[in-house]
Amino acid sequence: MKKDLFELSVVEGGRYSNLLVKKPDYSELVTFAWCKKNPVYNWFYYKEGYSGGLVWDLLGRLGIGEGSKVLDPFCGTGNTLLACKQKGYDAIGFDILPLGVFVSNTKLQQDYDMDLLYESVREITAAKFGETELRWPDLDFIDIKKAFSAYARKDLLFFKEQILGIEDDKIRNFMFLALLSVVIPVSNVKRDGGVLRITKKEHHPPVRHLFRNKLKRMYKDLKRMKPFPPGVFAEARIGDSRSLPLEPESIDLCITSPPYLNWVDYTKIYGLELALLVDSSEELRSLRRKSFRSHVGADDRRRIDFRSEKVKEVMENVSESTFVRKPGIVEGYFEDMYMSLGSIFSALRDGGKAALVVGNVCLPGITVDTDLIVAELGEQIGFTLEEILVANVRWCDVHGIRKERPVRESVVILEK
Ligand SMILES: C[S@@+](CC[C@H](N)C(=O)[O-])C[C@H]1O[C@@H](n2cnc3c(N)ncnc32)[C@H](O)[C@@H]1O
């Protein structure tokens, strides 16, 4: 019988092959697609995000009890935190980038003064244009003058200045999130895989127009939204997954998705939004160096010594390949993964579980099975591998060869 893509992706007799389980109903849930259709989740488009639906399913599957606390050490735009808060579970998240932390906390806000919000939206969208003192920082990866028309450049800064003048914190954050969400739509830029590309768009919608529409949609979401269950704590903080500032054994469950080993530098693809949030281009560069080693801009100094047969095998192949620039990134990526798993392990109570959404990649000559490597590293740290739920298997093109190898996107379930 012809093997299907899932079967083709599994190396028979491999140590974990009997723990790989097909999970096609997660196929869309591990992507941002579900968020696009769901209020609040769709306030900011984060292509790398996953869905609230996935988090809800995992909460049930992993058997969360009343009063449990959930951790997301790579919280991005806070979908884990929002999904937990909606179901009445406490949740804490960390992200290295202020963009994710800001978006997360704004999506978690509640108890708005709705009349004041309505009035503020009306006022800001009717404000008469004037000059602003604010300036864009110099960015080393894109020319701001090419990224925006002169109008869009000025208008974004004008609205930012107006927003900063709003006294009510919640309303100020709400408006700023709406502004951040229109940065790409009003630009000449397209996010294309791991890079920003300047494109010639036929039509440039004015900032004011898109900003107003976005505010209206967000306002409607708030009006219709079911209130969060009372007394739930959910918050995102700036923090590094490799050294989480958490009390040992203080967490019941971890649901998360680390950056994939796909050379995507978040400080570049979200660099235009970050440029509105941070004070200087130096700050942006420093964030780039500090981030997870999934791209060439990260600080690639070795930090710890860790042993992994699978990583060793990958490195032997990668080092021989002339196609992979900076092969050390691959090792650095798994070193960061090892440190993050260690930090999750220490924060979890005994019997606590961790679900990690990861993507495998293929490089010339080798498939990097991130799911199996996470399982191996997890076991070294003291976790037990429960199962690996395979949400997607895709053909991967390598160096001009179409459909070279199938690669998985999986949820690795570990237990402490
Ligand atoms: C795959 S995304 C997570 C998306 C998230 N699940 C969501 O639904 O929005 C990975 C996140 O890890 C963050 N990140 C990168 N390096 C980090 C580090 N060392 N510590 C914490 N977060 C980090 C990135 O900024 C990015 O937001």
List keywords for this structure.
Rossmann fold; 416 residues; alpha/beta; binds S-adenosylmethionine; two-stranded antiparallel sheet; globular; 8-stranded mixed sheet
Question: Can you tell me about this structure?
Answer:
The chain is of the alpha/beta class and 416 residues long. It folds into 2 domains: 5-96 and 236-264 and 305-415, Vaccinia Virus protein VP39 (Rossmann fold, 3-Layer(aba) Sandwich), CATH 3.40.50; 114-224, no CATH class. It has helices at residues 5-9, 33-36, 52-61, 79-87, 98-107, 114-126, 144-147, 150-164, 169-181, 207-224, 266-269, 271-277, 281-290, 309-320, 328-347, 370-381, and strands spanning 20-22, 69-72, 90-95, 189-192, 195-198, 234-238, 251-256, 348-359, 361-363, 366-368, 384-398, 401-415. Strands 1-11-12-8-7-2-3-6 form an 8-stranded mixed beta sheet, sandwiched between helices. α9 packs across α10 (207-224). The longest helix has 20 residues, at 328-347. It is globular, with a radius of gyration of 22 Å. The model has no long low-confidence stretch (mean pLDDT 93). S-adenosylmethionine binds at residues 46, 48-50, 73-74, 76-77, 79, 94-97, 100, 240-242, 257, 259, 266, 291-292.
